[in-house]
Amino acid sequence: MRYLINFSYDGTLFYGYQKQPKLRTVEGELEKALKFISGGEDIIIHSSGRTDRGVHAINQYAHFDLNKDITLYKLKCALNTYTPNDIYVKRVEIVDNEFHARYNAKKKTYIYKLNTNEYNPLERNYVYQYNKKLDIDKMNIEIKYLIGKHDYSSFVNMEDKKESYVRTIYDAYITEKDGLVTFTFIGDGFLKYQIRNMVGALIEVTTKNKSIKKILDSKDRTTFGKIAPSEGLYLLNVEY
Q: Quick one: fold of 2-95?
C-alpha cells in the first residue's frame, strides 16, 4: 500500500532534510520510525523535495510503501509516537501506486521571514534578524523580474551542477507588518539555495542599489553578495 503523509518540522536541530550517515535529519528520523512500525523492514520515503540545514517546513509531503494492516489513524499516531517532537505528521492518506510525492507536485510555495525591528533572541532560529529597515516598495518592484520562466543560474552556487537552471516562478511578492517582512515565492520547483540567494539579492536592491533584472540576465552568482541565512526559510505548501 502506498501512503502519502503531510507533515511539518522545525529544522533548527536537523542537518537538513536528506538522510546522511551519523547525522540527525528529518528523512532519517521518519525512516527510523517506519522501520519500527513495519517490524524491522527498511522503508524508503520519497519527499516533495529537500530542505537545507536550519530550514523549516509548515507543509511537507512524502510517500512510502508499507505492507502492514494498520488504519490511517493508527499509522499517524505511530509516526508521531516514534518521531521526535520537532516533527509532526498532520495527515496520512492512501494514494495510487503510481503517485510520486516529488514528480506529481505542481506548485511549491516558500516563504522567508525577516525582522527589521530590534534583535529578538526568541525568534533567532525562526526569523532572520536583519534588524535594519528596508525599502519594501522598491523590492516589490524588483521582485517582479523574477516572475516567469527563466534561467536562474545567477541564484545558485555553481558547484551545484544541473542540466538545466530553468524554472518557472508563478508569483513572488513581499509584505510587511509591524517590522516583520515576509517574502513569498510560488513556483514549479526551486534549485538548491535559489530562494535564499534571491532574498539576499533583493536585500541588496535597497542597500547597494542592485538591479534584479541585471543579476538575472547576467547568469553570474558573483553579481551580488551574501546569501540570506537558512532560519528564515519555510516550505509553506505543495500543490498536487
A: Alpha-Beta Plaits (3.30.70)
